[in-house]
Amino acid sequence: MTEEIIKEGKNIALVSYIWIFGVIIAFYLNNDKKNEFAAFHIRQSLGLWLSYMVFAYMVGYFDNIMISISFWIFFGVLFVYSFITAVSGKAYPIPLVGNLFQKIFSGLGK
Predict the structure, then answer these.
(1) How far apart are CA 61 and CA 76, in angstroms?
(2) Is 28 helix (H, G, I), strand (E, B) or coil?
(3) pTM for the model
(4) Side-chain half-sphere of 56: how many Cα atoms within 13 Å?
(5) Spatial distance between the Cα atoms of 110 and 95, rounded to a whole number of angstroms
(6) With DSSP H G I counted as helix, E B as strand and the rest as coil, what are the percentages for the chain, rounded to 5?
(7) Can you spell out the DSSP letters for 36-88?
(8) Which of 110, 103, 100, 109 has the alpha carbon at shortest distance from 51?
């Protein structure tokens, strides 16, 4: 990706990390431009938010503060990592699951 593509898509990429509504808004903002950098981060963010919701539902059954705190820390670190890579203009996949998210949501942004 060139610097120009990254610069044009950075704002949309950052919007995608603002809760699940940010992903929807960023998807529609990127529909016209089809920016590769923004599409990468939209796919990452969508995967993070969907997996967060699925795992939060499962963690809710345990009713254990240690499990809940571990869950919050784990996803907090992933979101901060992703947001920082978007701010810095990098397209690094999320550790462990980022490439899977890119494959699953490969139709988004094309």
Answers:
(1) 20
(2) helix
(3) 0.88
(4) 10
(5) 24
(6) 75, 0, 25
(7) HHHHHHHHHHHHHHHHHHHHHHHHTTT--HHHHHHHHHHHHHHHHHHHHHHHT
(8) 100
Summarised one tens digit per residue, pLDDT across range 9-53 is 899 999 999 988 999 999 999 988 888 999 999 999 999 999 999
CB 79 within 8 A of CB 46: no
Residues 41, 50 contacting (CB under 8 angstroms): no
Provide the residue type at 90 as one letter: K
The tokens for 15 are: 């919007």
- Residue 29 tokens read as 């903002």
Q: Would you say 26 and 13 are in contact if contact means Cβ atoms under 8 Å apart? A: yes
Residue 100 contacts by C-beta under 8 Å, 6 or more apart in sequence? 47
